[in-house]
Amino acid sequence: MSKIEDTVRIPPSRFEEPLNDVAVELLNESYVGTVDKKLGLMVTVKEIEDIGVGNVIMGDGAAYHDVVFTALSFKPELHEIIEGEVIEITEFGAFVRMGPMDGLVHVSQVTDDYINYDGKRGALLGKESKKSLEEGDKVRARIVALSLKGKSSKETKIGLTMRQPGLGKFEWIEEEKKKGKKKTVKKTTKQGKK
Predict the structure, then answer these.
(1) Torsion sign, CA atoms 109, 110, 116, 119
(2) 93-105 confidence digits (pLDDT tens)
(3) Nearest Cα to 78, choosing from 138, 155, 161?
(4) 22, 35, 37, 66: which could join 52 in a potential S-S bond, CB 3.0 to 4.6 Å?
């Protein structure tokens, strides 16, 4: 939650409505979907904490109120581990939805395996491992590149990797855990026989 100070313009046609409700609605219209370098993507204006007396500017007729409000924002951090859903597969990678924003896992960052794009199926396929990544798959990835330039989420760039232990499609992670347990059991058994 972030505390923000601004001025909100209340048009004369809305003077009879509850001031706080109108202010929240108008602030949501101007803030939601915008990106701030310090705060990240603005998701919603939560509540007005303080609203000043309105000032009327000559020739306008609207009331301008200084406000202090709390807002919910989403700010991805470099090296952060995220979980999301694959929303689109292209020949150059997979787009992953992580809350209100999307990131890209480039084909070179999906697995250590060579990746082929299957356009008919809309999937990325591992040549040796036979792993597949398709739309709707749930994944865990790490943010490796981040650019919060611009004023909207469409202008942001978030690069992701799944080529590290504990990352990838959830099914791949579970398979790796099972392999790790089997190796541990074998080592213990061999040591016990000596």
Answers:
(1) negative
(2) 999 999 889 999 9
(3) 161
(4) 66
Give the separation between CA 2 and CA 90, rounded to whole angstroms: 36
For residue 120, how many other CB atoms are within 10 A of its CB?
5
- Cα dihedral 36, 41, 45, 47 sign: negative
Look up the pTM and report it: 0.76
pLDDT tens-digit readout, 139-164: 999 999 998 877 777 778 999 999 99
Distance separating the N- and C-terminal Cα atoms of the chain:
59
If DSSP codes are grouped into helix, strand and coil, which group holds residue 180? Answer: helix
What is the SS3 assignment for 64? strand
CA dihedral 70, 74, 79, 85 (to 10 degrees): 150
